[in-house]
Structures are given as structure tokens and as C-alpha cells.
Amino acid sequence: xxxxxxxxxxxxxxxxxxxxxxxxxxxxxxxxxxxxxxxxxxxxxxxxxxxxxxxxxxxxxxxxxxxxxxxxxxxxxxxxxxxxxxxxxxxxxxxxxxxxxxxxxxxxxxxxxxxxxxxxxxxxxxxxxxxxxxxxxxxxxxxxxxxxxxxxxxxxxxxxxxxxxxxxxxxxxxxxxxxxxxxxxxxxxxxxxxxxxxxxxxxxxxxxxxxxxxxxxxxxxx
Length: 222
Ligand SMILES: *Cc1c(COP(=O)(O)O)cnc(C)c1O
Known about the structure:
Oligomer: single chain
Function: Pyridoxal 5'-phosphate (PLP)-binding protein, which is involved in PLP homeostasis.
InterPro entries: Ala_racemase_N, PLP-binding_barrel, PyrdxlP_homeostasis
CATH topology: TIM Barrel
Protein name: Pyridoxal phosphate homeostasis protein
Low-confidence stretches: none
Shape: globular
Number of helices: 8
Family: Belongs to the pyridoxal phosphate-binding protein YggS/PROSC family.
Bound molecules: pyridoxal-5'-phosphate
CATH class: Alpha Beta
Distance between the termini: 19 Å
Helix content: 25-40%
Keywords: Pyridoxal phosphate
Largest sheet: 8 strands, parallel
């Protein structure tokens, strides 16, 4: 199937509350334009430089999501235009995003990344660190006016074991649910970003509201 057909067939089968992020990392602008012409407006990238080059070349009604690990010193390169940063995993990074957003007189939307996988290698916060960030932000409201924490993100273990993946997604959903009482101007968790090409159906069953799908749309990567 073509990229356009892939986008449409995935979209047409999604529940209403689920948003599709088309993960276009490593793919050329021509491929992204095929998805764009099929109606896709949200693209996810994992490298700031690559995302910025694509942003410069592509239509301006696209929402760019940073889904990869973000180095603090690179936030400035996307602060002008990024619409959602999925992988926020430290207070230091959140403060830098706030500072750069302020420079551009805008608000940047963020998801906090939670560590749910068994592997040591995946980034993310544990629950204690998550609570520390919420406490800090609630106490420093005035100083954090240029960010909004609008949800959580997680990546399951890379495994074929469906029960394991399901257990990790369910765990993330339970953390997400337990924070629904935190409704302030700055923190209001509405989005749960979980699920990729291999596991997005399981993620949706587990309560995902945002899936990040790359290879099922654009084909495999090198
Ligand atoms: C690459 C990537 C995806 C998409 O992976 P596919 O398996 O190609 O769908 C999703 N989320 C993150 C964080 C990624 O880096």
C-alpha cells in the first residue's frame, strides 16, 4: 500500500479520542508530503535538527511533535514552532523549555515521559520523580507560565510478549488516571501517548489517546 493508503487505513480505524502522530524520522520530505496530502497534519520526529529542516520546507499548518530524547542545550532550536514535546524527563529540561518559550512569547505543550519498560535503556521518570515535578510546578506557577503539562508518554519493553506490553501500558494508564485530580492552569493531563506500529492496538485497548506510528505508515527504516 502507498503512504497515503496507510495513513487513511490507520486513521479510519481509530476510535474518535485517539490522535495519530505520523512518525517520519529519517524519511524524506516527499514521503511526508504524501501523508500530508492524505490529510495528515501531525508529524513526529526524534532529532531536533532534522525536524527543523522539515519544518522550514513544509506547509505551516503542520503540528510538529518532538518524540525523542531532548538535550537541554538544543531546546532553543525548536522553541519557535514545536507544538508538543513528548519526552520531557527532568525538571531541568522543563525549566529550559519554559525559558525558551518565554523568549518566543508563547506556550509550549509538554508530556512527561514515564519509565514503564523493563529495559534500563529507556528514558523516563519514576512516580516519585513525577510527583516532584508536579509539586515544583504547582509551587512555582508564576515562574512556569510558558509551559503546559498536558499528559504522559511511555514506551513499552521491546518484546513479543503481549502480556508484558499490556501490563506496562496498564501501569502507565493507572498513573495517568491517578493524576486526573491535578487540574490547574499549568498541569492538566488529557493526553496519554503510548503505542507504536507494533503495539498501538494494545495501547488503545489500554487507554492510549495518542499513538506514534512510523513504519506502518512510511515503511521500515535503515
Ligand atoms: C521511532 C519511534 C516511534 C515509531 O516507531 P514505529 O515502530 O516505526 O512505529 C514511536 N515512538 C518513538 C519514541 C520513536 O522513537
